[in-house]
Amino acid sequence: MPDMSVSPAVTEMLDQLLAPMRLPAEDIGKLRPALSAAVVALIEERPRLTEAGFARAQAYYQDNLRRLQAIYDDRERYPEIARVKIERPIFILGMPRCGTSLLHALMSVDPDNRTPLSWEVAAPSPPPEQASFETDARIKAFDDYVDAAFAGEWAGVRKAHPVGSTIPQECGFILETSFVSVNPAMLFRVPSHYRWYRDCCSNFGYEVHKKWLQHLTWHNPRKRWVLKVQEHMYHLPELLSVYPDAILVQPHRDPATVLASQSELMRVIRSVSYVHQDPIELGQEMLHLWHDGQVKMMTYRKAHPELKVFDMRYKDISADPVAAARSIYAYTGEDFTPIAERNMRQWLAANPSDKHGRHTYRMEDFGLTEAGIHEVYSDYIDMYRAYV
Question: I need a surface site. Which of 44, 80, 213, 359 has the fewest CB within 10 A?
């Protein structure tokens, strides 16, 4: 990372972002390298961003820190939060566009399961209460924000990915509060921060992640947590150091059917911050970014054959989502209750895949070809051939 002393713009922004933070000195020390890498990457990208895009990025960084501070403040206010136990959480991870969001949503409607909901991740303080969990004023506030924000250029996001107050939120929106996350590279082109994230030790990120789960569990516990985000595959050792009894579920899909869809989603998400995006550059970025994660996960799995992972086929998930969810319960030894099945079938009927319009994309628009994708992902395809 560049020497901070030679970049006044970086130093100024970093000081501004850290000024309101009241974390313990030890945790500020853990946060600083991650935040510094994010600030350096943003300053590097500033010439390509619109003024509104740069302001949006600054606001995004500030909001992440605001939410992190809220978790720490409530933890200090209510010390008993730190004593909440998180046992056998289920993590759904793997490539994007492989049915992970569908599985997460289905399992969220089982009253025995707890998933982070979008409204409580956006505004975590005060800690959510079980009695008001479905009527909390923050629910409407988040939906009002979605209606205002996901319009115009961003309307296409909802065609590809569900957005709403009571939709299960990905762990990326928790991890990003530590800046040990791939999420900044989804919203903006910040390659140096991505490289830092890919190669770093992410212990602080998972320490923060557990603080979030304890916070959300405190006054609204359920039998089990079900969590999801693809970026967990980059840092399995750190995840398992914090959650040694974690249950890992990994759906698989031919990457040639994934990359164009993901590239189009990223193009739409970034469109509000750029006048021009190079689609070929974006396609190559997504091609290698997600392969990097698979390489790290494959390497860890090969080195630890004792690690148990429930591998799934996207084709099975899409053919019969409820049966796919049931198979996770069978794997974990948990009961798949009639209430869970009824709620899942009702959810599927109410949420067709094209509810907000059809997500359309073409591989060639991003300079991608099936042969080229298969060449890059040959190691992944060889290892998981039975599932892709």
Answer: 80
Distance CA 196, CA 201 (A): 9
Phi-psi region of 177 (alpha: psi -120 to 50; beta: other; left: phi over 0): alpha
4-383: CATH, from 1.10.10.200, 3.40.50.300, 2.30.110.10, 3.40.50.150 = 3.40.50.300
Where do we find the tokens 């901070």?
4
Confidence (pTM): 0.94
Selection from 108, 102, 103, 86 nearest residue 212 by Cα: 86
Residues 249 and 91 sit within 8 Å (Cβ to Cβ) = yes
Low-confidence residues in the chain, pLDDT < 70: 1-6, 151-161, 354-360
Could you report the per-residue pLDDT of 7-27, keeping only the tens digit for each? Answer: 899 999 999 999 999 999 999
| Orientation angle between helical segments 51-77 and 203-217, nearest 10 degrees | 60
- Measuring CA to CA, how many Å separate 248 from each of 225, 291, 295? 12, 19, 17
Under DSSP, is residue 275 helix (H, G, I), strand (E, B) or coil?
Answer: coil
